[in-house]
Amino acid sequence: MIYRTLGRTRIRVSEIGMGCEGFVDKPYEQVLAFVDRMEALGVNCIDLYTSNPEVRSNLGRALRGRREKFVLQAHLCSVWKDGQYKRTRDIGEVREGFADQLKRLETDRVEIGMIHYVDSLADWDTVVNGPVMAYARELKTAGTIGCTGLSSHNPEVALAAVNTGLIDVLMFSVNPCYDLQPAGEDVEELWAPKNYENNLVNMDPQRQELYETCQRLGVGITVMKAFGGGDLLSETLSPAGRALTAFQCLHYALTRPAVASVMCGARTLEDLDASAAYEDAPESEKDYAAALAALPKISWQGHCMYCGHCAPCPKGIDVASVTKFLNLCRAQGAVPETVREHYAVLPHRAAECIACGACEKRCPFGVPIVENMKQAAALFGA
């Protein structure tokens, strides 16, 4: 298993994480089997959006004696009320629900305290200027949560949140189809068939800005909906007009800027094994570039997907990394200090480009790589 640092938090998380779907409606013995398999595979990050008390209790029991081996992404504002899940901003319910969660998980702290499901700017205003954010900051100061997170499907809201500096971790929906859709408060619109009736071209600029802003500010991203609820894996259900493989979806998410871990919705041990097998899969099975370039309803023409097909460069330039640093600066309108320093340690830089064009011939998306190298050399002075 490969581990990545979750932004500025310094927390190390496995590239393949675990959504909590697999723990729902399962007896303790099956939850224990999941945790045993996760430990064996090296899957260490668990998202806990569900407020189901049985899930929390079973997981807490299964983690006994090995709690320190796992990173818990536990949600604030997701509570159990009248026998069912409820999203709440009532601070009394939030406090009571989180205290109950810690008790059932048999722990006095969690690594990530995730403010649950903020998809509108009005809701974000309520959160950031009200008692919910004050409570999250209180928990962080006390060490009860290691860092503050926020889950959202709306790039406009997510951008507003990460730009405050209050959010350390963003849980966001990332897949090739969602990335084409503009910001909106209704998550169902991301998958509405009418939005895919016409050909779609290139990633929504606000989503690209979000990923690049997170990278620049050190906000780590944990991914939900990487498979679009499974629809992307189905020839008949995929709005892209063609199915992708699980490995391609995982690789797409993990090559977006700032992404550290993908929370896979494994409902069986076989599902978990299949996602974890990504780590040992050959690059040819992970490669999404040819698949995306051939999708009948979608085009990424001229857009760098960081897929690496431009390699190898005869001068040894890591073209994808140079392009990523260039895009980060374009989004900022300046050269951030962190980007400058990361660029400076590259063994080969854009100024070494001899404009041979070999990279452009290999690029499935028609990116003007030679021009990008010229711009990067001018921008960074090397």
Account of the protein in words:
By secondary structure, this protein is an alpha/beta fold. It folds into 2 domains: 3-285, TIM Barrel; 319-380, no CATH class. Helices cover 38% and strands 16% of the residues. It has helices spanning 28-41, 53-62, 91-105, 121-128, 131-142, 155-162, 205-217, 246-254, 269-276, 283-286, 289-293, 319-332, 337-344, 358-362, 369-380; strands at residues 3-5, 12-14, 16-18, 45-48, 71-76, 78-81, 84-87, 110-115, 145-152, 169-173, 200-201, 220-224, 259-264, 298-299. Strand 9 (145-152), helix 6 (155-162) and strand 10 (169-173) form a beta-alpha-beta unit. The chain is globular, with a radius of gyration of 21 Å.
Individual helix count: 15
Helix content: 25-40%
- How confident overall, as mean pLDDT? 91
Secondary-structure element string: EEEHEHEEEHEHHEHEEHEHEHHHEHHHH
Summarize the structure.
With 382 residues, this protein is an alpha/beta fold.
What attributes does this structure have?
single chain, alpha/beta, TIM Barrel, 8-stranded parallel β-sheet
Task: Please write out the topology.
Elements: E1 3-5, E2 12-14, E3 16-18, H1 28-41, E4 45-48, H2 53-62, E5 71-76, E6 78-81, E7 84-87, H3 91-105, E8 110-115, H4 121-128, H5 131-142, E9 145-152, H6 155-162, E10 169-173, E11 200-201, H7 205-217, E12 220-224, H8 246-254, E13 259-264, H9 269-276, H10 283-286, H11 289-293, E14 298-299, H12 319-332, H13 337-344, H14 358-362, H15 369-380
Parallel strand pairs: 3-13, 4-5, 5-8, 8-9, 9-10, 10-12, 11-14, 12-13
Antiparallel strand pairs: 1-2, 6-7
Helix pairs in contact: 1-2, 1-9, 2-3, 6-7, 7-12, 12-13, 12-15
